[in-house]
Specification:
The complex is a heterodimer of chains A (541) and B (422). Chain A contains 25 helices and two strands. Chain A is mostly helical and 541 residues long. Chain A has a domain of 231 residues. In chain A, helix 3 packs parallel to helix 15, helix 10 crosses helix 11 and helix 18 packs antiparallel against helix 20. In chain B, helix 10 crosses helix 11, helix 11 packs antiparallel against helix 15 and helix 11 packs parallel to helix 16. The chains are: A mainly alpha (541), B mainly alpha (422). Chains A and B meet through helix 1, strand 1, helix 5, helix 6 and helix 7 of A and helix 2, helix 4, helix 8, helix 9 and helix 11 of B.
């Protein structure tokens, strides 16, 4: 047994251990520990990926002295390795990019708690990726839920507490359904590990016994995980959650957490139920319908938003819809497209959340369209990041979003009954995406009402109120007298104009540049990645 | 209804342009001037609004919230409250008094603004000017906000609010009926499923396969634990149990985030511990009956808890149940004798160290065990004689670790909920 094969286990344990140790460290040290842990786990996952690519097969790893049906087990293959690497990279860049804002938004004495949440979130994501045991998956789903809740309420401003409660209620509902599904599955198969459970399910299907429980299991697990990842009718927790959390938390939650559940669902379909049975159960068609509906309604609601952060959050609803549409196609090609979209959306959405904070800071912490006017000039790097991210979302060639849309479109041809709907949905949704993202993008590069690029419409001085319409600007100024103090304190002194506000922390610059590069890599070198996904799915089988 | 010369104001192009510029909101077909959301004020105004659901007052409320960001309105509000309460009794934020004061000030302000024609009048003025358009500060995504927007629109354009109210009532009725139906449907589906499950306790059930057979037949020999359940959760499936301990750990971290009040916080939004939030003021309680009972019971409970933890591999029990017993013993002691006494031996520092040590030991010990197991090495941990207290390898120390974590978590939850700190 090669030493590299221990690495999945090492990475999960390292992430958990760093969280445990952080409880007695100061905020700064906890941050260092957390960033180190993320880096180390990403490197380890990369080694696992390289190992599996070289050997060309997956392997299981016994957690303890007892083999498969008795003890716990994890499993690593090409797809697991790739997902772990990409999740690790996105996590690293989100944490690094939001470093400064985490420092500002989280109370100093609670900083280490924030990084505990990040560490345990990482460990749970890795465990969800690598697990070969359904009950282990459930335990780490719980950790994931609670850590997500902690990340949301960490800033304790605005409606973040409401958002956290909403998230907790919806997530608990999802976990509960997932657990019910697992109990039913254990009752009819007597197995919790994925590989023996799959054999048992195959026996049941061949016998024709327990058909109804099996259908309910597939339905309940799919719905539970769909609730947790925010599929369309269950998306109600998303806007507040992503809109009021700290930037890092928003990026991690939207980019990774919901994707971890989807990955688990794909694993459940492939490794437990078997794709043919999942397709036969017609649950997959339900996911398809709701995915398509989510693509439409998410985009429509995004168009109606005035708060850009909520707009991005509603765009997440639409993108989750894309992923479920790909799963719902029920073909290998659709699944590949869905997995590719998991990666591209994770990278792009995290980029959007990180870079839009730079724009908000350059506009005096305001998030509406009017205030963001011209902010692409006030903070050029964040503007560029947002530009790339938004174009990728819309599906601009050379970027990650284009490839996933292309994959969705081509995979639609493989399933004749759903082809037309998929293509129409893709076309309409792309237009809708373009409407709200281009509206914001054009706004970012337009002069403000007073005609200049540099000054934010309501600048820091509250005396500037006379320029815009009387009623509005007075209110804005009132807001500024409360909210505008923070960036001024933190920035390099009270410089007039926005030069000080636009100064990005160097960590954020690195993060944005790396995110842009990641997007370009996903867009330009998609073929190897698609091939790896195909191999990985074949290894799932 | 004023129309400009070329009807430009009403043209679709103009509306699109204004939407594109971020001036208007598409929701509800009414324009909506979004206010920058003042975090704390917004939340408080919401509470105040939620208290009285009179739809007729929608216009007033919309105006009140509309002027929430207005400097002059804030000044007026301050003045208004100083007139009623005097400048010294400026209530602390985030207390009941504060919310009550806000509500009162809001009412005063509404009464004042209406005749003066600043807020609401202006809103309705502009509302009528721009063709039945009302102004509202509510957030479009929020249900309550939309409700307010709707009522604001009705009041602003001086049309009757009756149809809207009826519409809302119908919607609420529909919503309730549908939720009951949906719950009934889900319950029905699950009951229907239960009928088709294998019968309970049947020997031929799929769950009675090789997995429990091995646990029962060779569990004692393989784990050294007479209690199969403990052997299963702490040896066969120890990874899951480690995850469960981490669930407890992260749950207590979340409660810390939510409830811990830090004195060393210089920020303006930091909550200071008000006198009503610190119930240590009522201590010592000197409740003789409780103290006498606790004097007898607490040692018994603690000894029993220790017994459950230490005997986990021999008899029913183990870390989770024993830790819960220990934690409840500590809570009883705290209730009887007060924080001054418990803080002599159990502070936040102790809590952190105990949790850290327990989880670190668990993590390292099991990592060693997993590593040797997966690589087919001998772990070298003696299993001892089954039935002896020092037996079953790692299970006994792991039980102690889990017990400590559970005890600390229970105690921490209790103290955090009581006084926002340990």
């Amino acid at each position: 047994m090669s030493f590299v094969q221990n690495f999945p286990f090492f990475s999960i344990i390292i992430a958990m251990f760093s969280g445990i140790v952080s409880s007695v460290l100061s905020g700064k040290k906890a941050r260092a520990v957390s960033i180190t842990a993320i880096t180390v786990t990403t490197v380890l996952s990369a080694c696992v990926l390289a190992f599996c690519l070289r050997t060309g097969q997956s392997y299981t790893y016994m957690m303890g002295h007892f083999p498969a049906p008795w003890g716990n087990e994890i499993r690593a293959g090409v797809l697991e390795g790739l997902t772990a690497v990409l999740f690790g990279v996105v996590m690293f860049l989100s944490v690094v990019g939001g470093l400064r804002y985490t420092e500002e938004d989280v109370e100093p004495s609670k900083q280490n708690l924030f990084y505990i949440m990040i560490d345990l979130m990482l460990s749970s994501l890795l465990a969800l990726i690598y697990t070969n045991d359904l009950f282990t998956a459930y335990v780490f789903v719980e950790i994931n839920t609670i850590a997500g809740c902690g990340l949301i309420m960490m800033s304790q401003t605005g409606r973040s507490l409401t958002a956290a409660i909403r998230y907790m209620v919806m997530s608990s509902l999802g976990s509960g359904l997932f657990l019910i599904g697992l109990s039913l599955l254990y009752d009819v198969t007597g197995q919790l590990l994925m590989s023996p459970a799959k054999e048992a399910v195959a026996r049941i299907v061949a016998d024709g016994s327990y058909q109804i429980p099996l259908l309910v299991i597939v339905a309940v697990v799919s719905v539970g995980l769909a609730i947790k990842s925010g599929l369309f009718p269950f998306h109600y927790w998303i806007p507040d959650t992503y809109g009021y959390a700290t930037p890092t938390a928003s990026a991690v939650l939207s980019g990774l957490v919901s994707k971890g559940y989807i990955f688990l669902l794909i694993k459940f379909f492939y490794r437990v139920i078997g794709t043919e049975n999942a397709v036969h159960s017609h649950i997959i068609n339900t996911l398809f319908v709701f995915g398509v509906a989510g693509m439409m309604f998410g985009s429509l609601r995004a168009i109606m938003q005035t708060d850009t952060r909520k707009m991005i959050a509603y765009s997440s609803v639409a993108q989750i819809g894309y992923i479920y549409m790909g799963i719902g196609l029920g073909t290998q090609a659709g699944m590949i497209a869905a997995i590719f979209h998991i990666f591209s959306h994770g990278a792009t959405k995290a980029l959007l959340f990180i870079s839009c904070v730079g724009l908000y800071k350059a506009s005096g912490d305001r998030t509406d369209f009017l205030a963001l006017r011209g902010s692409g000039y006030r903070n050029r790097l964040a503007g560029a990041g947002f530009l790339i991210g938004a174009l990728s979302m819309v599906g601009f060639p050379m970027l990650a979003g284009f490839i996933s849309k292309l994959l969705f479109a081509t995979s639609a041809f493989a399933s004749p009954h759903k082809m037309l709907i998929t293509l129409i949905a893709l076309a309409v949704s792309t237009v809708l995406n373009a409407i709200y993202f281009l509206r914001l993008l054009i706004g970012l590069y337009r002069p403000t009402k007073s005609g200049s690029f540099v000054e934010a419409a309501p600048a820091e001085q509250s005396g500037r109120g006379g320029e815009a319409e009387a009623g509005r600007s007075a209110k804005l100024a009132g807001r500024k007298s409360n909210g505008g103090v923070k960036p001024a304190e933190k920035g390099a002194g009270q410089v007039s104009g926005s030069a000080a506000l636009a100064a990005n922390p160097w960590t954020m610059r690195i993060a944005i540049v790396c995110f842009i590069i990641l997007n370009l890599i996903l867009g330009l070198f998609s073929q190897p990645i698609v091939r790896v996904i195909t191999d990985g799915l074949a290894m799932f089988g | 209804m004023s129309r400009r010369k070329d009807n430009y104001e009403n043209s679709r192009y103009y509306k699109f342009k204004r939407w594109f510029d971020g001036d208007i909101n598409l929701l509800e077909g009414v324009t909506e001037v979004t206010l920058p959301e003042d975090d704390e004020t917004g939340a408080d105004v919401q509470t105040a609004d939620a208290s009285d659901g009179l739809p007729g007052a929608g216009g007033c409320k919309a105006a009140g919230t509309d002027s929430a960001g207005d400097i002059s309105a804030l000044e007026a509000r301050r003045k208004a409250s100083e007139e009623t309460y005097g400048p010294e009794v400026w209530p602390q934020r985030e207390t009941v008094d504060y919310v009550r004061w806000r509500r009162h000030a809001q009412e005063l302000l509404d009464a004042r603004i209406h005749p003066a024609g600043t807020g609401a009048a202006r809103a309705s003025l502009e509302g009528s000017k721009s063709d039945g358009i009302a102004f509202d500060s509510a957030d479009g995504a929020d249900g309550a906000g939309r409700k307010r927007a709707a009522s604001g629109a009705a009041a602003g354009s001086a049309s009757s609010p009756e149809p809207l109210v009826r519409g809302m009532k119908i919607f609420q009725w529909f919503y309730m009926v549908m939720s009951v139906l949906l719950c009934a449907l889900i319950i029905g589906v699950f009951l229907w499923t239960t009928v088709h499950l294998p019968p309970f306790g049947n020997a031929d059930n799929p769950a009675n396969n090789e997995v429990p057979t091995r646990y029962i037949e060779s569990g004692v020999a393989e784990t050294g634990a007479i209690n199969f359940v403990t052997g299963m959760i702490l040896d066969y499936r120890a990874f899951d149990t480690f995850g469960e301990s981490c669930v407890l750990f992260i749950a207590s971290c979340c409660v810390l985030v939510l409830l811990r009040i830090d004195a060393s916080n210089g920020k303006s939004r930091a909550r200071s511990r008000g006198p009503q939030e610190d119930d240590r003021l009522f201590e010592p309680k000197n409740d003789v009956i409780l103290q006498r009972a606790a004097f007898i019971l607490v040692p018994l409970i603690l000894v029993f808890g220790v017994y459950i933890v230490l005997n986990g591999h021999l008899s029913p029990g183990g870390g989770f149940s024993g830790g819960a017993v220990l934690g409840s013993g500590l809570i009883l002691y705290l209730n009887a004798f007060g924080f001054a006494k418990t803080e002599r031996f159990f502070t936040e520092k102790v809590y952190r160290r105990v949790t850290l040590c327990a989880l670190t030991f668990y993590c390292l010990a099991k990592s060693y065990s997993f590593f040797t197991g997966a690589n087919h090495l001998e772990s070298g941990i003696p299993l001892g004689t089954p039935g002896a207290i020092l037996s079953s390898g790692l299970i006994l120390p792991l039980n102690i670790c889990v017990g400590l974590v559970v005890m600390c978590t229970m105690y921490a939850f209790y103290t955090l909920f009581r006084k926002g700190g340990m």
